[in-house]
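quick one before i forget lol
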Amino acid sequence: MKFRFPAICAMFLCLAVNAAGQEAARDFRFVYDTNPYLTLSNPSAVSFWDGRIATADVSFEKADGGLRDIGESPDSWEVVAGTESYFRISDLVAFHGLVKWSDFSGKDMGGPIMMFPGYDPVAFYESTEETVGTRQRELYTLGGEIALTPSRRFRVGAGINYQAGDQTKIKDPRFSNIWMDLNVNAGVSVIITDWLTMGTSVSWRNTLENVKGHIYGTTDRQYFIDTDKGIFFGTVAQLDGDYNYIPDSTPRPMNSDYLSGALQLVFWDKFTNEFSYTVRDGYYGKRSSTTATFFEFGGSKLSYSGQVLIPAGRSLHRIALTAGTEMLNNYENKFKYTTPEGGNTVVDYTGQELVLNKQMRFAGFDYRWYGGVTEGRASIMAGVSADWDSMKLTETVYPFWRTQTLTRLSAELFCQKNFFAGSNIFTLDAAGRYAFGQGTKKRDGTYVEGITSGALRSFDNYLDKHFEFETAPRTGASLALTYTRLIGQSFAPWIKVEDSFTTLLSAPEFLTGKTRNIITVSVGCTF
């Protein structure tokens, strides 16, 4: 399977190269960032692209260092290969395609059991950090959008994006995760006047992760699982049988459904605005009369993204803004297993309890100046970006409660310079970053005086490391060198080497180190 997918990528690349035509070789990222329509979530916006552009690359990343979150590895590598293209087939049809494959391996990994920590409102952890081992993860992504132009003023489009993958831990207790992510969307765009285009789109997304644990080695040792019901506070249970939160034989699903609607407004083909609203609904467990649904959760997200392009001679200014708010509630079902005389064991639900309320706000700013702009490329680029988010979490495992507040801010200065020498382009990228956070790690209390937590536990070993990772002030820098060779009018292979280094500004209290270094080597082409 690992060799079959790169072979498919290679065939796709060969077909795309053959169809690329005689367009000038362009910088794919520059074209994408400075096109007012390609960044919109509405698939009908692809129809505003006129021409052909494609990219393909393979990269190898090596990451090392103790400055890592609880779900990261101090020593990992990842290989990523993929191809993406936008092209107009005819006056009626335009197309966007994406194919991607990644293979990750990380040493000394434990802690979170699910594939993407923080994505789900309930989390599971290995109860001790003495059982860390190597984890491997493989992901496959295939996506496409098609847009039609039945008339000069009316556009319609539809798209689908599918991702599948798996993750395994190669040491007891061993966990096996199977991931699926399906996103289907459709939209229309109407040119109202010469200076206003309006669009609307809808999308449905479903993510499904099946998880189970197992013990392949010596079975006389007991392994336990921490169930975090919100803020590193919950229960501990042995990995034994299928009646606890994590089963050891039958995979159990974590399911999320999203339904989204969006409105797009584009002024003068330079000022884009997108307003979107998303509703999330999900559960953990199997919905049947004989299997339990442990948790049910839901929430909503309201967001805005905008971009303005300001040309000035051979220069171009690009300003992008994002902002939004999100809310998520998680409920735990109360139930018991009953076996009627002469019948099968069934699940008898007795109630439901709100265990987590999460409220989040976020905002982002990105400014870029491009100088020496030609068709599809700039000779120099410089900019600044900043991201801010704030969240408040409240967890209740009656009669106990815990709250946490967290605010994070990050900023980056970056620049890029292209040096042209005939058919050769040497590109130098440099960036500097700073980030910090603040908040209240935990605040505990009870609704009833004089009661102790009993079987409930606080997973402070994970709480301390995660909170320090999110809040400790840090600075970093990255440097990259790219060599591009222009071949003919439409083909431009390139090779890129990048190093990114981050360090805390003081010695860590809970993290295993204060630095992290990531080296990436990539080869690819645009056509």
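fyi Residues 1-23 have pLDDT under 50 and may be disordered.
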